[in-house]
Write a structure and sequence with these properties.
902 residues, Aminopeptidase, Rossmann fold, 5 domains
């Protein structure tokens, strides 16, 4: 990305905002953004060196555009005005330019109105080149200007708009802002606050979804394809991919690019992309890594929308290759294009209107409703082969290789809007932007199953990694499940789930009927299903000699039973008997039923020929019955379907905010502490922590900090007996041996004696005297900023045993009411809260309320890095928080917050 400042990020971060020079803008203001048509535009703050480019941009505007922007013809920018526009302080005056191919195509600016007595208000304006109007660049500029203004302390924007320019007013309104308008003759005065309200975020996310989906549509639904590096050598990648595009029946024109030959595979070739007479949407690049950058200018000149780079030798090989990959991404984005790869296997779209096989795999599965994304090219070939063998039809396939630009998140946006994709399969080696992934996956999963294999522990890219902690696989699985993602461990399990989701309805309940001719297989299915919450209510063993008619009747009766929600048919063919009649019996027995059925028919994986319902493209369609090699795998796939059906059928649960909270006071307390620490990350003292929690209705059991025997006696008398005396330094908090605490002290003498003893044992002169809390089950709630998933809340029983066993449940914030309820039920030790062993159940509603309040606090105050309430006594009559700790610091960079960006 272009950076004209010549100074490092760390240098700019050390400069006070009110002392910024013309080049001292925050580096995170630089962004690559998507226009509404899916094209990329580079956005960055303006610098004095942009003067010539700005003059050229201005001269290219039509008279009408200049009139609407400047309220007059304004044919030339005076030198003084040009200097003012390009030399800003990036604080009270901020300007962003949109750059494409090195040329400015849009500019937006705000200027503070402090001189007019409005210190928190700024005037905003922007203009887009005529040929780029209608691409949604105005709203994007507005988002980034508002984000920068909020960082600089502004709260409101104003704008003056000609009455004959309603499109400009629409930009403000359609962004989700609540406008105040006044008319003054020929102009409209517009005012609005720039707080990121729910309406604004909703609009931002909707526009992001549209632009990202469109950029992937440019990839998967091209009107024309060029193969750059189309070799005449049939052993070369360029020759193979050209052959696959042609053999796959691509419906648009295909243009080989080869500078040495007039034709490749009998198709006329062109020396460069520029020489192709027709438009080119997708450029497939199969040249050596060191030659890839040479084709960029040709692709820009030709108006190529997406480059699919099959070439290896980038970040997959070495650090220098990774640096080359970064430069490639920057160049491609500055040229307005998207990149798939490098080191990609390719993409496919089975829609007969497209018929695109731009992969290195000679064959792709038939038409279906499953979208598949993976990263590894070698694995992608195996995936396509497995899908074909299992008769699993695909809608689209993307193997993104090094995933330098287009990622699984982009493709999720496309599949969310694609009516031809009903099931989403993901093989992920990393999450890219995990916060965004979980947000998108939750939305997609609300209407379409999302099944994922997550390999290894590489969820955090190096730039986002933190060395202090990482989540185990079970915790990651729980967070993905919160978003509705079905996480499995192997490719086989991925396809097992895909076949039931693609061809069978979701079960309406956990009640299962098992029909078959093998008792042993039926028992195995029952045991496997129980691990997923399936409950066998009917098991019909027909015996090995059952006829097809008997099999059909048993299936029909089970399918018609109102007490059965799904069926598992286990079948071992009798010796020397044709299985066709048994297959027909199963199909006929299920005819007219809307309940899912899975089978172990002949131990076949996928969709057996005899259990197939053919769709209009001659491939398996809904109603086909999936078969599995073992009853355990059949039951497991059905169990995943039931769990997903449960998640999807849950009533909508909104993020609940308690009414009796005071976020303004809490923010003031936190920001005073952060500023007092000079921007460092610090742990707050116990009293300030208690004061902040109190703003959210969370009361710490009353305590006093004391340093002498006399102070402890006075504190105990004030609090009321019995009391506890505790050491609270880092080495003594929560000690299981209780050496640092004295409990149930009944009078002043006992308190004074305890203070002397603890001072001797701990060597600490500062202690806590605290009211005794009601007896209960000790639990702990903690929220910390995780580099993978953002703010994560954990819950479990307090103590070293739970810590040692890792018995903690995790959920990503903010939490809905149902998320909070799930959280406290998730630990393996959670039955202790429900009266396990005959004890009285605790007040779970009070625990849920506490979870919701802590979630709201962290969501409201982004400076919160860590907050832990430990221990919390859960009792039948409420909860008591005995201690809390809170760490705060400057707001960390969130990779899925603020204005839209790639």
């Amino acid at each position: 990305m272009t950076d004209n400042s010549g100074i490092s990020n760390s240098a700019t971060e050390s400069i006070r905002p009110d002392q910024r020079g013309p080049h001292d803008y925050p580096r995170h203001w630089i962004a690559d953004v998507l226009a509404s048509d899916g094209g990329v535009v580079h956005l960055r703050p303006i610098v004095p060196e942009d003067a010539d480019a700005l003059v050229k941009f201005h001269s290219g505007l039509s008279e009408r555009t200049r009139y609407l922007r400047y309220f007059g013809p304004f044919p030339h920018i005076p030198a003084r005005e040009l200097a003012r526009m390009t030399t800003v302080d990036h604080y009270t005056r901020v300007a962003f330019v949109g750059v494409l191919g090195g040329e400015i195509i849009a500019i937006g600016i705000y200027e503070g109105l402090g001189a007019s007595g409005k210190p928190t208000t700024a005037e905003v304006a922007f203009v887009v080149a005529d040929e780029h109007q209608g691409r949604g660049l105005g709203p994007v500029l507005l988002e980034h200007l508002a984000g920068a203004a909020a960082e600089c302390g502004f709260e409101k924007f104003e704008a003056e708009v000609l009455a004959e320019n309603p499109n400009m007013v629409a930009v403000f309104r359609d962004a989700g802002y609540q406008l105040r308008r006044s008319f003054d003759g020929s102009t409209i005065h517009v005012e609005f606050t720039i707080d990121p309200t729910e309406a604004l975020l909703s609009v931002r996310n909707a526009r992001e979804r549209g632009s990202e989906a469109r950029s992937v549509a440019n990839l998967l639904r091209p009107a024309s394809v060029a193969v750059i590096g189309a070799s005449v050598d049939r052993l070369k990648v360029g020759n193979a991919v050209l052959a696959n595009v042609v053999a796959g029946g691509f419906t648009g024109p295909v243009f080989p690019v080869n500078s040495e030959h007039r034709a490749v595979r009998g198709i006329r070739a062109y020396s460069t992309v520029r020489d192709i007479p027709d438009p080119v949407d997708l450029a497939i690049v199969a040249v050596p890594a060191d030659a890839v950058e040479e084709v960029l200018d040709d692709c820009l000149h030709k108006g190529v929308k997406t480059m699919l780079v099959l070439s290896a030798g980038f970040g997959d090989t070495s650090d220098s290759g990774l640096e080359s990959e970064r430069r490639l991404v920057e160049s491609i984005r500055e040229h307005g294009m998207r990149l798939v790869g490098p080191n990609a296997l390719g993409v496919a779209n089975t829609d007969p209107a497209i018929s695109l096989n731009a992969t290195l795999a000679p064959h792709v599965p038939g038409r279906g409703a499953v979208g598949f994304f993976c990263q590894s090219g070698a694995l992608g070939i195996a995936i396509l082969d497995t899908a074909a063998r299992r008769q699993l039809g695909l809608s689209t396939f993307v193997s993104a290789g090094n995933r330098a630009d287009v990622s699984g998140n982009d493709v999720l946006q496309y599949w969310d809007t694609d009516p031809d994709t009903e099931v989403v399969l993901l093989y992920l080696e990393s999450f890219g932007n995990p916060r965004k992934f979980t947000r998108l996956a939750r939305r997609v999963a609300s209407g379409k199953p999302v099944v994922a294999v997550k390999s290894g522990r590489g969820a955090v890219p190096p730039a986002m990694a933190a060395a202090d902690h990482s989540l185990d696989d079970a915790s990651t699985r729980a967070i993905l499940a919160q978003a509705g993602v079905i996480q499995v461990s192997t490719i086989a399990q991925l396809f097992d789930c895909a076949t039931v989701f693609a061809y069978q309805p979701l079960p309406r309940g956990p009640r299962v009927g098992i029909v078959g001719n093998s008792t042993a297989l039926g028992v195995l299915a029952q045991e496997a299903g129980s691990h997923f919450g399936l409950r066998v209510v009917q098991r019909v063993d027909l015996g090995p000699g059952a006829s097809p008619e008997t099999f059909e009747e048993a299936v029909r009766i089970a399918a018609a039973d109102d007490d059965v929600d799904a069926l598992i048919a286990v079948f071992v063919p009798p010796v020397a008997v044709s299985v066709d009649r048994y297959a027909q019996a199963l199909m006929t027995g299920m005819s007219g039923s809307d309940k899912p059925v899975v089978t172990t028919f002949l131990a076949v994986e996928g969709i057996p020929q005899h259990l197939t319902v053919l769709g209009k493209y001659g491939t398996p369609a809904r109603g086909s019955i999936p078969s599995y090699p073992s009853p355990e795998r059949a039951a497991e796939a059905l169990g995943h379907a039931w769990r997903y059906a449960q998640w999807r059928s849950r009533p909508p649960s909104e993020v609940r905010r308690p009414a009796d909270v005071d976020p303004d006071t809490a923010r003031l307390l936190v920001r005073e502490a952060v500023e007092g620490a000079g921007g460092a990350v610090i742990e707050l003292d116990d009293q300030r922590t208690a004061d902040i929690l109190r703003c959210y209705g969370i009361e710490i059991v009353p305590f006093r900090e004391v340093s002498t025997v006399d102070e402890s006696a006075a504190a105990a008398n004030e609090l009321g007996y019995p009391v506890a005396v505790k050491a609270f330094s880092e080495g003594w908090r929560g000690r299981a041996d209780r050496e640092g605490v004295r409990l149930d002290l009944p009078d002043q003498h006992a308190v004074e004696l305890a203070v002397v003893e603890l001072a001797e044992v701990t060597g600490e002169s500062r202690l806590h005297v605290q009211q005794m809390a009601p007896k209960g089950i000790s639990t702990v709630i903690r929220v910390r900023d995780d580099p993978s998933f953002g703010s994560l809340m954990s819950f479990g029983l307090a103590g070293v045993t739970s810590d040692l066993l890792g018995d903690r449940a995790y959920r990503a914030l903010p939490l809905t009411e149902s998320d909070a309820a799930d959280l406290i039920e998730a630990p393996r030790s959670a039955p202790l809260l429900s009266g396990y062993g005959g004890s009285e159940p605790v007040d779970k509603a009070a625990l849920i309320d506490l979870v919701i309040r802590i979630s709201a606090l962290v969501d409201d105050i982004p400076e919160t890095r860590d907050v832990m309430c430990d221990p919390i006594h859960a009792t039948p009559r409420g909860v008591a928080v005995l201690a809390a700790r809170m760490t705060v610091g400057p707001v960390p960079t969130k990779h899925d917050s603020g204005p839209r960006r790639l």
